[in-house]
Design a protein that fits this description.
It is a single chain. With 919 residues, the chain is of the alpha/beta class. The protein folds into five domains: 140 residues, MutS, DNA mismatch repair protein, domain I; 145 residues, Nucleotidyltransferase, domain 5; 151 residues, MutS, DNA mismatch repair protein, Chain A, domain 3 (Orthogonal Bundle), CATH 1.10.1420; 112 residues, MutS, DNA mismatch repair protein, Chain A, domain 3, CATH 1.10.1420.10; 235 residues, Rossmann fold (3-Layer(aba) Sandwich). Helix content is 43%, strand content 17%. It contains 31 helices and 26 strands. The structure holds adenosine-5'-triphosphate. The site of adenosine-5'-triphosphate has 12 residues, from helix 24.
Length: 919
């Protein structure tokens, strides 16, 4: 925000009001996650800690705050200070009295609402009670998972606002989740019941992949799994409210669901899912869905099938940088690393969609890579169609799709009865452009022509057909000429007899007024053109002459002077004033009639919402395919269509693979690399090489290529064969371990234990620099043990980047282990990173080489070489045995049943049992 804008904000200054202060102090302000805004008609005020929080969040300073009185003058009741989200106030702050911030209605208010939801705050809007001084009542409230009452503000929000209700139970020893999830804005509702392992990996994936924003949690503190779920939610940064058991009741659930979904769709509901159905009743109650008759029969049933998508947890989203996760440090401000622009996410790279619907769908696809080969091939066929037919792609991108506005927004407005005639005209414009899209699609004649016809052309034709009635209605009712010429949106007067009659009378009145204008000019002995008519809402028609001619009005009682302005003198005569009265009455009558007719028109338009939704989904899908094809073709080297092998079959072989985001960075001339992950032959690859040599980039690019292939997108490679995987598990870098108050070593251990428990023989495991948090020996020992465990017990594909050069010996012991290294050249006493991945272990200790280049004393170099040799001969079987035994026991520990300190103690005692030193 610019200084100017900020200055403007502070122009709205609310005067100190002691009555309000006592009302405010009397409120229950204990919930530090709620921010209260007071609607003062035209602007809003925020007070106390809420004001400080918003000032810091939005304006990044406290300058815009005003303080009322001093703390000593204020009523005695203390406000609970928000210690977590804003720094504790200094004495100076508390002495200043009650903080007060005013924000303007419109853009500023909208921005702040969006930011508050992003900060996971609950929002309350308070309005003054009519005719009561300093008495306020709650008029709106919302939270991140329930933004219904703020829809008008959040229309352009890309992400959905999905709330879930969650019940945890155990069946036959396994954890079972009964989940209901819903988005009141997009009117979707779903239920799902699934089992989970002790790591809750299914729940983790569900939260990430369904974009859950908030949770209503079945309160059951005695339940052993309950604390684990709470920890998982906190880890995924999902705010949750503990809800009494009574709200999870199946009593009226079936009936309530039928009401919202409509009876037909109800057949698809699996009512056997008792826990999920109970969660649904809780969700319906807390979102207050039944209080809005507009919702009845309008909800769509959404399915979540755990077996349909690749599992991805937050560590993988972070490790592969699939989407931008907004991360926060303990001060509540965004991490600078998380906002770095250089390091763009895969979603950011791909999202060059032309429509907001496309962007939303793409986000969903990126989060939910598919497992079914047929579905993947189908998507690839479409991408191929638009990739090969340049003309088709360019025409859709640069013309046809660009002009299609946000249909989701339109349907939301129409459904919520917040639409205007302008929205109808906009929709009419979009519908009129559809034949152009259709003819562009019809122009294609490639191999997938039939598929294009069956999936897009036929549906679009039928949608255009079904919209005919809508178009006819708009043409008949709305004055389109006025809309096009003057951007005024009204009902055509010829549409309704009564309206036409009133219009006639209005015209007649205006004509009479015009007659008096001419007569007045005559009376004043002025040329007719010098007496003008001026119309304003307030005064109706007035006459106007130039200031020079004002003398002509002097001393003549029949002329009533209204105002003298730069452009002349405004005056009137009795007859015009009388006609003005008539004109005003007629105008009011006309407007009234117009309103009624507009309302009816909008009601009819709202009946087209299901059709708009169908169109929106068709355009979104088309846009995503076209965009994926576009990105694939504009990459520094075009992407290629991957060859897909069903889950658990075939190998993953990539020739000339590239990292899609690193290759587009400025100044990077990317070196492509190959990899062959062959089952039973080379499914475990160890990557060694110098620091900054490109190890992480290489293993992440393999993860991203597999992920992109399963989304149905082309991939950055010369040739790619991808065997579908059930999940990608990544442990990349120590990450934010400090934030959670866990040592780097513990964080590594926890994440790795999770991988060991969750991975299957059909997974892709990506491990980067394991063991950095420990002493060299133990780090190495653990890395060795973990690698061995993955090879022998899990199977699956694994890429293991490590700085432990000695780990490469594994290749001699385990047949499926192969070594790769990133190369560097040390010719002519220079050290150049080549980024080329080659087979075999890295044969040089580059660390020492760099030390030589840096002119280290000879003695240091010699000692380093000696020590390195010692380490190389690290093959003591007893030591290795110790590490293996440690790992056997380590993986059995259930970290979820203890807190961090307890876990740490257990691991420490286990380490000491096997004489492993991590200090
Ligand atoms: N194939 C490549 N072609 C060109 N540049 C590359 C390539 N791979 C990596 N780089 C560049 O090198 C930088 C370092 O790469 P990366 O982080 O992958 O190295 P690393 O070996 O994992 O390093 P470290 O061991 O220090 O973690 C990248 O940011 C990128 O700019």
């Amino acid at each position: 925000m610019s200084d100017n804008e900020q200055e403007e904000t502070t122009q709205v200054v609310l005067k100190e009001d002691k009555g309000f202060v006592s009302f405010f102090q009397g409120l229950d302000l204990t919930d530090k996650d709620t921010i209260r805004l007071f609607d003062r008609k035209g602007y809003y005020s925020i007070h106390g800690d809420d004001a400080v929080f918003v000032a810091l969040m939005h304006f990044k300073s406290k300058k815009s705050l005003k303080y009322w009185g001093t703390a000593n003058e204020m009523p005695k009741k203390k406000i609970k200070l928000d210690s977590s989200s804003s720094p504790p106030p200094s004495n100076e702050d508390t002495n200043l009295g009650l903080a007060c911030l005013t924000i303007r209605q419109g853009f500023e208010y909208e921005q702040i609402i969006k930011e508050l939801f992003e900060e996971k705050k609950k929002i309350e809007i308070w309005a003054a009670k009519p005719n009561r001084i300093n008495q306020w009542e709650l008029s709106k409230k919302g939270s991140r998972g329930n933004t219904q009452q703020f829809e008008d503000v959040l229309f352009n929000y890309t992400e959905n606002s999905v709330m879930m209700a969650l019940k945890v139970t155990r069946e036959k020893g396994s954890i079972v989740f009964g989940i209901a999830f819903g988005d009141a804005t997009f009117k979707t509702l779903g239920v799902s019941e699934f089992m989970d392992n002790d790591n809750l990996s299914n729940l983790s994936s569900f939260i990430m992949q369904m974009s859950i924003k908030e949770c209503l949690l079945y309160s059951d503190p005695k339940n052993y799994d309950y604390a684990k779920v709470k920890e998982k939610l906190a880890e995924a940064d999902i705010p949750f409210t503990e809800v009494p058991k009574a709200d999870f009741s199946s009593k009226n659930a079936e009936q309530d669901l039928t009401r919202l979904l409509g009876s037909v769709k109800n057949n698809l509901l699996d009512l056997e899912k008792e826990n999920a159905i109970q969660s649904a009743s809780c969700l319906i109650k807390h979102l207050d869905l039944l209080s809005n008759p507009n919702y009845f029969g309008k909800f769509k049933l959404e399915k979540f099938d755990l077996n349909k998508y690749m599992k991805l947890d937050s560590a993988s989203f972070r490790g592969l940088h699939i989407i931008d996760l907004k991360e926060h440090n303990s001060s509540g401000l965004p991490n600078s690393s998380a906002t770095s622009t250089k390091d763009q996410s895969l979603y950011n790279l791909l999202n060059q969609c032309n429509t907001p619907m496309g962007s939303r769908l793409l986000l969903q696809w990126v989060k939910q890579p598919l497992l079914d080969t047929e579905e993947i091939e189908m998507r690839l066929n479409f991408v191929e169609t638009f990739f090969n037919d340049i003309e088709l792609r360019q025409s859709l991108r640069s013309n046809d799709l660009k002009k299609i506005g946000d249909l989701d927004r339109l349907s939301k407005k129409l459904h919520g009865q917040k639409a205007s005639l302008e929205d109808c005209v906009n929709l009419y414009g979009i519908v009129n452009r559809l034949p152009v899209v259709l003819s562009t699609l019809n122009g294609h004649s490639g191999v997938h022509q039939e598929m294009l016809k069956a999936n897009f052309i036929d549906s679009l034709e039928s949608i255009i057909n079904d919209f005919q009635k809508f178009c006819a209605m708009v043409e008949k009712t709305i004055d389109l000429d006025l809309a096009n010429e003057k951007h005024e949106y009204v009902i055509r007067s010829s549409f309704d007899e009564a309206l036409a009659e009133i219009q006639k009378l209005k015209d007649k009145t205006s004509q009479k007024i015009e007659g008096f204008r001419i007569k007045t000019a005559d009376k004043l002995d002025l040329d007719e053109s010098k007496v003008k008519l001026h119309y304003s809402e307030k005064d109706g028609y007035l006459l106007r002459i130039s200031r020079k001619d004002e003398v002509k009005l002097r001393d003549k009682k029949e002329f009533i002077i209204y105002a003298t302005q730069k452009d002349g003198v405004r005056f009137s005569i009795k007859e015009i004033n009388n006609l003005n009265e008539t004109y005003k009455k007629l105008s009011a009558e006309y407007a009234n009639k117009q309103d009624g007719l507009a309302k009816r028109t909008l009601q009819i338009a709202a009946s087209f919402v299901p059709l708009i939704e169908d169109l929106s989904s068709l355009i979104a899908t088309l846009d995503v395919f076209v965009t994926m094809a576009h990105i694939s073709s504009i990459a520094p080297t075009p992407f290629v269509r991957p060859e897909i092998h069903p889950l658990g079959t075939g190998n993953t072989v990539i020739f000339g693979g590239r990292h899609p985001c690193v290759e587009t960075q400025d100044g990077v001339s990317f070196i492509a690399n190959d990899i062959e992950l062959i089952r039973e032959e080379s499914q475990f690859q160890i990557i060694t090489g110098p620091n900054m040599g490109g190890k992480s980039t290489f293993i992440r690019q393999v993860g991203l290529i597999v992920l992109m292939a399963q989304i149905g997108c082309f991939v950055p490679a010369q040739k790619a064969i991808v065997s579908v995987v059930d999940c990608i598990l990544s442990r990349v870098g120590a990450g934010d371990s400090q934030l959670r108050g866990v040592s780097t070593f513990m964080a590594e251990m926890l994440e790795t234990s999770y991988i060991l428990k969750v991975a299957t023989k059909n997974s892709l495991i990506i491990i980067d620099e394991l063991g950095r948090g420990t002493s060299t020996y133990d780090g190495f020992g653990l890395a060795w043990g973990i690698a061995e465990y993955i090879c022998n017990q899990i199977g699956g594909f694994c890429l293991f980047a490590t700085h432990f050069h000695e780990l490469t010996i594994l290749a001699d012991i385990i047949p499926v282990v192969k070594n790769l290294h990133v190369s560097a050249s040390t010719e002519n006493n220079t050290f150049t990173l080549l980024y080329k991945v080659e087979s075999g272990a890295c044969d040089q200790s580059f660390g020492i080489h760099v030390a030589v280049l840096a002119d280290f004393p000879q003695q240091v170099i010699e000692t380093a070489k000696l020590k390195a040799k010692e380490l190389e001969s690290f093959e003591s079987n007893t030591l290795k045995q110790n590490h293996n035994s440690f790992l056997e026991e380590f993986k059995e520990i259930d970290f979820n049943t203890q807190n961090t300190t307890e876990s740490y103690e257990i691991v420490k005692s286990l380490l000491s049992k096997y004489s492993i030193d991590i200090e």
